[in-house]
């Protein structure tokens, strides 16, 4: 027998049957990851064409059925619907008697802890909140990206070991988040990840307008280094005209953006003010230079900057 041969996980006895309610980008990837750990996906729900395609790609041969039937078939149910839809879904499933005592009910919302599952808890379900701190594409690459991914975990004390085990089986790292801190935790992730996508997309658009043919190739090394430096050094990694107090350069930026991409001006000014505050607080921006810089930013909000840093 070849020692390097890896047994197919489908040949191992399944420990839990897994269902997915909401075949968006997250649910099928998590179910596929659990399948690799020896569990068995048995049902998913999804009605849109994209949901059907994702389920077919990540969970082949798993039938698409109504949500209540998913719960009827599965020991572990992943509720992977948008945050705003989660409370109503849980209430509806509980009211219709779809929830079974002893059933593991796992939602993946960053915003909520386990209190949102209270209606299902009253019906005997075991509630877990497991939020993967990862951006998903809806393709098989998501399963690979779960390796080393942190999960924001909230669970009753008696289910702590079960929550940790599920996260580890998916290749993740559990990070415990108190119920009352879930909204702040989620806001922090959105600020860093979601807004980063917007900033990068706007930067690429502006570079194209400036004549750069492959803005992604130009930005890749720069942004990679900036991210690495920021994660290693925090505010000490701040560079650029705001941190240096180059008021004239910032004024020129605002003038050019107002001319070529006025929709980006508000975001530039807001980020520049936040950068200036952090640079000042950490001694990177000299106070004597900060006054002119903050004046440019204030005037820029009114459309009154000139490329030379003065006002109209």
Task: Describe the 3D structure.
- This protein is an alpha/beta fold and 312 residues long.
- 49% of the residues lie in helices and 11% in strands.
- The chain contains 13 helices and seven strands.
- It has a seven-stranded mixed β-sheet with strand order 2-1-3-4-5-6-7.
- Helix 7 links the parallel strand 6 and strand 7.
- Helix 11 runs parallel beside helix 13.
- It starts with 16 loop residues before the first strand and ends in an 11-residue tail after the last helix.
Low-confidence stretches: 1-13, 305-312
Query: Got a strand count?
Result: 7
Task: Give helix and strand order, one letter per element, not per position.
Answer: EHEHHEHEHEHEHEHHHHHH
Strand order of the largest sheet: 2-1-3-4-5-6-7
The helix tally amounts to 13
- Return the structural class: alpha/beta
State mean pLDDT (0 to 100 scale): 92
- Broad shape: elongated
Beta strand %: 5-15%
What composes the largest sheet?
A: 7 strands, mixed
Briefly, what is this?
The chain has helices at 27-36, 49-58, 67-73, 86-95, 118-122, 141-145, 160-169, 182-209, 215-233, 241-244, 247-260, 265-281, 287-301; strands at 17-21, 40-45, 76-79, 104-107, 126-132, 150-154, 173-176. It is α/β, with parallel strands linked by helices and 312 residues long.
């Amino acid at each position: 027998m070849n020692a390097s041969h890896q047994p197919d996980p489908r040949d191992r006895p399944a420990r839990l049957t897994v269902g997915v309610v909401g075949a968006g980008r997250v649910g099928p990837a998590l179910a596929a990851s659990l399948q690799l750990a020896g569990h068995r996906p048995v049902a998913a729900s999804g009605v849109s064409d994209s949901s059907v395609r994702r389920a077919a790609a990540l969970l082949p041969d798993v039938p698409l059925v109504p949500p209540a039937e998913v719960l009827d078939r599965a020991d572990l149910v992943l509720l992977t619907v948008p945050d705003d839809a989660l409370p109503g879904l849980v209430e509806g499933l509980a009211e219709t008697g779809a929830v079974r005592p002893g059933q593991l009910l796992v939602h993946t919302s960053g915003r909520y802890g386990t209190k949102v599952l209270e209606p299902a808890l009253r019906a005997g379900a075991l509630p877990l909140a497991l939020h993967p701190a990862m951006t998903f594409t809806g393709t098989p690459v998501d399963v690979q990206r779960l390796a080393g991914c942190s999960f924001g975990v909230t669970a009753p004390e008696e289910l702590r070991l079960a929550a940790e085990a599920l996260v580890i089986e998916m290749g993740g790292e559990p990070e415990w988040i108190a119920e009352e801190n879930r909204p702040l935790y989620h806001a922090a992730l959105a600020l860093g990840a979601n807004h980063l996508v917007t900033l990068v997309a706007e930067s690429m658009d502006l570079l194209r307008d400036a004549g750069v043919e492959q803005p992604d190739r130009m930005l890749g090394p720069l942004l990679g280094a900036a991210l690495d430096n920021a994660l290693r050094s925090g505010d000490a990694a701040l560079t650029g005209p705001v941190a240096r107090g180059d008021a004239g350069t910032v004024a020129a930026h605002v003038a050019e953006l107002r001319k070529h991409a006025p929709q980006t001006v508000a975001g530039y000014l807001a980020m520049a003010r936040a950068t200036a505050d952090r640079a000042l607080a950490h001694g990177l921006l000299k106070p004597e230079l900060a006054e002119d810089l903050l004046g440019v930013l204030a005037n820029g909000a009114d459309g009154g900057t000139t490329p030379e840093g003065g006002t109209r």
